[in-house]
Design goal:
With 127 residues, the protein is of the alpha/beta class. It has one domain (4-121). The protein contains 3 helices and 6 strands, in the order E-E-E-E-E-H-H-E-H.
């Protein structure tokens, strides 16, 4: 079963040959990013979509969270909602990511949008 891999900047580290990077800058990246608040005392999720991505109507640019882990969980939930509104992206996820390990920069213990992509890409085919 394909897995999530944390991408690293460590000398000598190499990604597995068939792993796909799915972070920001790719069509599969999460347009919601986790940030420390400007006061430095909390966490939030912020819309960071690029020019051809549109924030869903009714959502604020910043959504406060209770902790870093909560912010990551919220960013994943928002990503899952967002990706389900893009049928061509859903088709591309199945086509391009099925059976592949997926890489992102998120630290391993934190929730990451890769879990959503792994579920969608490797879901059983409906007959």
């Amino acid at each position: 079963m394909p897995t999530r891999i944390q991408r690293r900047r460590i000398k000598g580290w190499r990604a597995p040959a068939d792993a796909a990077y799915v972070g920001r800058g790719t069509p599969f990246g999460n347009p919601w990013t986790v940030i420390a608040t400007s006061t430095g005392t909390g966490w939030a999720v912020q819309w960071a979509g690029h020019a051809n991505q549109y924030k869903p109507l009714g959502y604020n640019d910043h959504i406060l969270a209770n902790s870093q882990a909560d912010a990551h969980a919220l960013a994943v939930e928002l990503y899952e909602t967002w990706v389900h509104t893009h049928p061509t992206l859903l088709d591309r996820i199945t086509r391009d990511l099925h059976g592949r390990d997926l890489m992102c920069w998120c630290a391993e213990p934190l929730p990451c949008h890769v879990a959503v992509l792994l579920d969608l890409a490797n879901a059983p085919k409906e007959s």
